[in-house]
User: Fold these one by one.
Assistant:
Number 1:
Amino acid sequence: MSRRDEIIDTLTDLIGSLPNVGTVTAGSCPIGDCGLESADGVAIAVEIEVEFGIDIPNDENPFVEDRDGPSRARTVGQMADWLLKKEQDAQ
């Protein structure tokens, strides 16, 4: 299993563990497809920070809906790519 696949599994488990969230896949967008709101995303972002040992700056948080801000990772797969890059940059 690739590191990206491991990250996707972790993300789908974290997101899927929330109440009223159905099946989560790499193509799922937690804000929208899974019915999460930005407030839910803050809690998940904290869990991701702990799980992966990284800091998610507010302006990059993929769970915060910001239509006027910079492009952010929105699907679970895009989040995995973003996290993988963060890990690689830290090495």
Note: The longest helix spans residues 38-52.
Number 2:
Amino acid sequence: MDIKTKTILKMERLRKNLRQEDVAKYLSLAKSSYAKYETGENTPTTDSLLKLSDLYEVSVDYLLGKNVNLSKFLQKSYEDGKTIGTDIADGVIERKRASKRAKKET
């Protein structure tokens, strides 16, 4: 499943803890204009894509969703520590592992 540019833009903005206003100012756009990028109502210009790739430290190809699938996208989010609940998930996994080790020892 390919990820759409609008989703990537929003996730990258959130990963950097930025508001739409912040990104719009960086791009010299009105907030409403940038918001339309994230809703898919408008397509970012080439100039905007180049600036966004610099801001988010990713390639333009990535921003356009080229060869980006859901598992890679989620893996990137996880590696960046931005997946909601990773601490909880890691704790559950560790408890399961500990439980398996305890069963093997008995």
Note: The chain has seven helices and no strands.
Number 3:
Amino acid sequence: MRSARNSLKHGRLAKPSLVSGDSEQEFHEFTEGTVRELDPVSALERHLVEQIACHLWRLARMSRVRRASSSLTGPRGITSTSGTR
């Protein structure tokens, strides 16, 4: 099925995977790199590999958000105030 191979080109997978601050170019490069590495043979395999790439992208984003969030909070999740206690 040719449409599965063209899903990235036409943006079907990009819309649910990208949020504000994400680079569309980096997402497409990441996804295509994942496709090249896993080398799907059929349209179904290509679709599954693209889904894997989307989920990996989301997991990486969640990790970045957690790291950024933890730098703003103390060890127990309590937001520190500057100099007051």
Note: The chain has a mean pLDDT of 78.
